[in-house]
Amino acid sequence: MKKIGFLSFGHWTDSPQSQTRTASDVLLQSIDLAVAAEELGADGAYYRVHHFANMIASPFPLLAAVGARTSRIEIGTGVIDMRYENPLYMAEDAGSADLISGGRLQLGISRGSPEQVQDGFRYFGYQPEGDDHAAMAREHTSVLMEVLKGDGFAQPNPRPMFPNPPGLLRLEPHSPGLRDRIWWGAGTRATAEWAAQQGMNLMSSTLLSEDTGVPFHQLQAEQILRFRKAWADAGHDREPRVSVSRSIFPIVNDLDRAYFGREGGSGDEVGYLDGGKARFGKTYAGEPEKLIRQLAEDEAIAAADTLLITIPNQLGVDYCAHQLEALLTQVAPELGWR
């Protein structure tokens, strides 16, 4: 059994071919798709976050709105670039969204992906020491994880506007349990081990920023194995969660075939990302019987407890819901995921 959700890149394009031509279209349709996904029996609604692009950039208002319109489905991000974040303000926003949803927030964070502008975090007021962007992201993450514990750390004003409880003050609103629902988007085996040591769940995407020559799903399965070992070695007192993302398109009608019929023969790709070698996973597209055979051989999906399906959000809510329904009813049961 697996949790199955969607991951939306949240694109909009002012084009006659796009169902999402404005930011408003994307935000409102993102809410509608989460509602539809919950009705179909999906388990998660996740959204990518990118700055300076025609994509979702400020996720917490959206997550709060989705939380208010749904009752069961998990809601999350994949991922928030921590180089841009004020971790204290972020903790307040995340706590509010989590309380509105009744504790369903699953917050994916990371060092981030290639940016639309050069060192965009500088415009947000953050400057790493030297050029160590990753260290700054990890420092912001460390602060976030600490304040999410809910311990007091701020000295109260002796003459406050409102009476204070005794002792040091914590950030409010505090949402108990949210700290255990933070995921790190790891692009390498080493960063997965680091995430385990910090007590964060693992979120692994459709690419890894390293390549050992083995197929993508095997490299990702090794990443998951190393994460779980590092978790056990760290002695945490709960079981971690692991998600992987995949592009999976069941072809069950002529429209599906027109959109994705040529994707069925794709394979892994090797390229360069941020100056380093990277391996990208293939797209799965085909009739359900073909997908069942192919997905049964994906070692990383087998090792994960959560599968996030990347959806073509510019094709609209109805089509994305159709794709989710086909996967949930015609593919997932045959693989034992349902």
TrEMBL record:
A single GO molecular function term of this UniProt record: oxidoreductase activity, acting on paired donors, with incorporation or reduction of molecular oxygen
Every Luciferase-like domain range: 9-254
Pfam families: Bac_luciferase
Residue runs in coiled coils: none
GO CC entries: cytosol
Matches recorded under PANTHER family: BLL6902 PROTEIN (PTHR30137:SF15), LUCIFERASE-LIKE MONOOXYGENASE (PTHR30137)
Protein name: LLM class flavin-dependent oxidoreductase
Organism: Nakamurella flavida
Lineage summary: Bacteria, Bacillati, Actinomycetota, Actinomycetes, Nakamurellales
